[in-house]
Here is the input.
Amino acid sequence: MKTKIENQVALAIIRLIAILVVVILAFLLGDILLAGVPHISWHFLTAPSQSFTSGGGIGIQLFNSIYLLVLTLIISFPISLGAGIFLAEYAPKNFLTAIVRMAIEVLSSLPSVVVGLFGFLLFVVQLKMGFSILSGAIALTFFNLPLLTRNIEESLSAVPNLQREAGMALGLSKWRTVTRIILPEALPGIITGVVLGAGRVFGEAAALIYTAGQSATNIDFTQWNPLNSASPLNIMRPAETLAVHIWKINSEGVMPDASAVSAGSSAVLIIAVLLFNLLARVLGNALYRKLTASKTN
Here is the structure.
């Protein structure tokens, strides 16, 4: 009888904690969305921002955020994929492997502002790249590498060894077994990790303040030559992202509708991150069903 009571009390406490977490999250998201969604419109999403007058939007900042995200994934994903495959399939258990894993853990625990300062000193100052999209993308690569590498390694390690043995039994080399059997089986988990990492990068601000800059230069969306200074695709131009824009408005915004712009920008950022998380779940389940011909709950 006493054991049953203790079990019920423990379950009640766990459920209470879970409900409390959900309530806190719902309160935070609800407060931001209720304050910001009424200010979101097509004009707000596409118009350039204003420094001193009202009626500005977040069009350039939103484009900069998406462009930086794509460029960061282009740089970080191949590196993470190679590192994840090596750690999961080839790395022996020795001192060197332990050092690599420890380096990944340390890098993942670094505050983003430290990564930003490192990027500022190395890329902006020493390599004379200036405040630019490329500097920001490389800084975000350092920020994103541990998460992606660990996700890919765990996704590959989760594949049963029977799959590897089956490939070897068919006469496939180790590399062909990994690329033809293990990677497709682990693909749903890898895609989920990539999308979740994209959501994390999309909302990053501290690392970009010191690398990509705090100014949204006027760009010409009719000029798509990457070498043109006014081109949206120019990787050497400074680029204020949406998260940096929110920080800047709340710290030094002087436009009459600063609070409305901040609320709307915050709501857009929250919606984007929520969509990234939803997309990760949908893509992961869809790929799992397609590759394994089974159903998921």
About this structure: The chain has a mean pLDDT of 85. Residues 2-36 form the longest helix (35 residues). The CA atoms of residues 141 and 285 lie 27 Å apart.
